[in-house]
Amino acid sequence: MRREVLLTPGPVELHPRARLSLSGPQLHHRTEPAREAFLAVREGLRSAFGTAGEVLLLTASGTGGMEAAVRGLFSPGDRVLVPVSGKFSERWAEIAEAAGLLVDRIELPWGEVLDPEAVAARVGDGTRGLFLTHSETSTGVLNPVAETVRAAKAKNPDLFAVADVVTSLFLAPVAMDAMGLDAAVAGSQKGLMLPPGLAFVALGERALSALRPAGYYLNLARELESQQKGEGAYTPAINLVLAAREVLAVLLPVLDEHLAEKRGQNERLYALGERYGLRPVPAQGGSPAPPEFRSPATAAFYLPEGVAYRDLAGAFLRRGYRIAGGQGPLKGRIFRISFMGYFAPEEVERAISAFAAVLEELLGP
Amino acid sequence: MRREVLLTPGPVELHPRARLSLSGPQLHHRTEPAREAFLAVREGLRSAFGTAGEVLLLTASGTGGMEAAVRGLFSPGDRVLVPVSGKFSERWAEIAEAAGLLVDRIELPWGEVLDPEAVAARVGDGTRGLFLTHSETSTGVLNPVAETVRAAKAKNPDLFAVADVVTSLFLAPVAMDAMGLDAAVAGSQKGLMLPPGLAFVALGERALSALRPAGYYLNLARELESQQKGEGAYTPAINLVLAAREVLAVLLPVLDEHLAEKRGQNERLYALGERYGLRPVPAQGGSPAPPEFRSPATAAFYLPEGVAYRDLAGAFLRRGYRIAGGQGPLKGRIFRISFMGYFAPEEVERAISAFAAVLEELLGP
Question: pTM value?
Fold first, then answer.
């Protein structure tokens, strides 16, 4: 099979420590070494999420983690607010609706950065929940989550604020408790540079008190009971847990430097694109948003006039790289290119050179 | 970390082809090679399950697959029948109850083989579903699923029969359509010799017609739509899908021989244990059941008088092998030893020698 390097915003190039771990023999999940790894990963992730609460590991994609959080913290009939400005914020709304919640959607143009005051203006006394998307992978926006939660809780301190940090964890600063979040969800196949298959659900102290049993498989109350002892309620993807421990061991001690590096790599992509006149997708009031609202998870540009996504992606593929297109209303209108996975410095240089060559081929000189 | 060989009935020793595949680089799930693998695995499993219907892949443990089947095929208030004779048949009852179904439990002593006529006697006109466990991993029983479904459907042809084949698929003959089953569920970490993390839900033609949208993540109706095109509705554990394709490619062409080999290996364990006077767990009317009701997935014995499980398991561990104890009411009363995973012929001999040495140490001469 031809080997493509993934410049996609998940799944991503695996961390070498993860690959080594995944090539190993099977470990039984109900053994002491497995329990140690399980607890070490929960503890490492607690630090990464920035919470004094708990992190639960689910054998599921990030979407499964999102649904578990919705069903564990809310009941049918609860009123919740969901600003929708991309595919993943839309997913919060869909999951909440499927769980029987009364969803007040704030519809924004895809790519628009959240305005904390505009969100807060829609919070009422009856609003029990607010669902946010920290890094909106479909548009490349990094939303001002802390400011939005602060404004929303100023109007209703009782609401529960829950964020999708799937592509901000390990890529942008995440500090759940300090950001006012009661819960947050991430997955293995993004900033942690592992294969897909594991979701992480972080619960702060208020969320832990509010947790209720819900369903069977995606039941956080039951998982909490088992996981405090280092075991999943059901057979967990223990191979991914072991790989996560390996990557966390090297990543956590240098997390700040790692975040700076990831942001720097992403800004190089934006700088290169802008040099060729490409327009970034993240927007504020319809104009390109300031760099602090660009997610380090991916650069996202509108396609240049007259260039089809197929041709652009094909030019990358001929050079051995896979990029991503747009989703939903942005399909065929944007492209995304990401250093979210593992890239040694020389691999970053090679990929940037390839991006430059593609732009030169399609737009230059 | 000290390396133990797993004689546990899941997770199991991995197939070498699976390990090789899992050590590879990340493949993006929305690419042509990924779609090809996804469709090949669905097709291979369709043949393994023995259905003209469809097999769906879920990123979840087998329990997640069981819940998806329950919620996709039944509605709150539906009356269903669940014979309970071990941990996994009890799980069907728990999942069905959590989904709001009205569950009629037939409580049997754990380890007892199902009596088709006794089950059928409890089927009424209002019985919408029957949940069975083909290989009851907690007791080592292989239940007469075909006979039970036939007797039950003779009384009510409209009921939907669903089976857990988690530890019978690739270990004992499974032929879903011919057995009268409308749906069946299995997982990756058993007879397919992969790590945990992928559930398989097979749906026959009646089940496909009856499928309804349910929930969000474990929504078979939505998965069916995506998976017919070779994609999961959400990011799937594509690395496990690729590994599954590798193992299926070598297993399916020789499946009959493989099943005979697995049964033979398991019968050697029973023969050895019985030579030392151990009593097998599978029972019919309270006496040891005939060999055809012993699941090839695991041998299960009552602990000999005066031998604690801890001591027996420790004697295996000193020789580098991990076995499994009892669950639920059988905890501390039985032990289980399994060749479910990958064992080269000389590895089988080594493990059997170790079992003999353990029995000699604890019971002999």
Answer: 0.97
